[in-house]
Design brief:
Pfam families: CTP_synth_N, GATase
GO molecular function: ATP binding; CTP synthase activity; identical protein binding
Structural class: alpha/beta
CATH architecture of the largest domain: 3-Layer(aba) Sandwich
Largest sheet: 9 strands, mixed
CATH class of the largest domain: Alpha Beta
CATH superfamily of the largest domain: P-loop containing nucleotide triphosphate hydrolases
Function: Catalyzes the ATP-dependent amination of UTP to CTP with either L-glutamine or ammonia as the source of nitrogen.
Catalytic activity: UTP + L-glutamine + ATP + H2O = CTP + L-glutamate + ADP + phosphate + 2 H(+)
Number of domains: 2
Strand content: 15-25%
CATH topology of the largest domain: Rossmann fold
Number of helices: 20
Radius of gyration: 25 Å
Number of strands: 21
Oligomer: single chain
EC number: 6.3.4.2
Amino acid sequence: MKYVLVTGGVVSGLGKGVTASSIGLVLKACGLRVTSIKIDPYLNMDAGTMSPFEHGEVFVLDDSGEVDLDLGNYERFLDITLTRENNITAGKIYQSVLEKERRGDYLGKTVQVVPHISDAIKNHIESVATIPMDGQEGPADVCVIELGGTVGDIESMPFIEALRQLSFSVGPDNFCLIHVSLIPVLGVVGEQKTKPTQLSVRELRALGLTPHLLACRSAQPILDNTKEKLSQFCHVPVCNILNIHDVPNIWHIPLLLTNQNAHHSILKQLNLVRIATAPDLRDWTNMAATYDNLTNSVKIAMVGKYVGLTDSYLSVVKALLHACVACSLKPSIDWIAATDLEDESSKLKPEAHAAAWETLRKASCVLVPGGFGDRGVKGMILAAKYARENKVPYLGICLGMQISVIEFAGSVLGWEKANSTEFDDGTLYPVVIFMPEGSKTHMGSTMRLGSRRTVFQTADCITKRMYHNSEYVDERHRHRYEVNSEFIETFEEAGLKFVGKDETGKRMEILELPSHPFYVGVQFHPEFKSRPRRPSPVFLGFILAATGQLDLYLEKQINGS
């Protein structure tokens, strides 16, 4: 197994995840099979209980793993299906070691960070790296490992030590270290400063790891004399100093790396030059160029709880991008804080309230994504009502589907007190209820998670046709509340149809309003399986409806054209 380790220095948020994904894509384009591992040094067992404001979205995998959002980048770039084991956290490692200690596996020895924690990290990496993630037989050729955080963080020290030991045990021909760092420009001087990177590399070398390549982040392309200075003080050849400057969209990053012969430097270090082929990125190049040349856009109102940090909805944003590009459009997302739409906001923040409603009315479509807790729920209900009454295409995901049920119950059925038991435990009309198998005392991994099957109940619905008339679809879930099946008959008599259910027929998965051009709610998260060249059918239908192209698209599908 060949390993490519991506570390970060100077500051966090440099784009290590995109860099690691791009490196994996370039190596895959060279004919190699690639897998990925993300190391998060925090003590949480997984990302499942972390606030979106704290850590961005929680990405959900087929096997029900709740993982770091960077694994979403890996899946989208490499078109592979990862498992929860591909996300290593300090919590997982320490728990496994402590469980062994309790069982007496260490035979009375003093359990220490070195060698016990470091060995557990190495063993986990080596075992996961051999698991094929691309559907083929046998292990991959290269495993790209991203070490979260910044070199020098206290919590990452055991991982640095384990990776140092791994590099020594596998040998220099099987290990390549790429260090991502920042080249800032001081406003007053206007000079590209290399000192932060020098110090970051010095710290990395002091910990026993020497970078083979530098990936330098900057706003503008770095100058030749900057590269020469970095080479001199960081002991990295000039040809191995890569510049990842700001680009119009992240699809350019693999192309940027290829243009600087990053693949050749990596293949040379890993002794794979004779095995690999020249990188074939024609399709990726066309995709990036297509996006750059798009001139028309579609306005999408995103009404959510966590709009202050767009990474909270990263996969939704990417799914919208994939769908828009497939329709030759650029997404123009207008972020609306759900609380700003609420009546109370008109008194407390009248300007924000007026601006939010103006933005909503100008949008071509409305999307209400997932979330937890009651903050902003009233605003989401108002957004769903506006979309339903004004025939504006609406897509509700997870909580967004439940919101559309609550709104319909209150506005159409006249059940003014209808609500979810998540927000009102004593509601007279509990149209959304807590799932019986869930836990109200433990939050981690107690939801309905992972890939679950949805069976279509009728052939005459938009979502089934968007899924190419499949009898069922497997999508990823993450929820602990569901639509109350006791009210389904009443809803359907009033016109709200539940066209997709689980295999038991008791759980509502997809709803549609046939009298509306596109009013769809899904209990699952279709964004997690969307890919650049294979947009999610739900998102594609949403964008087609927003631009008046849905009927023509479905008609062509019937005619087989």
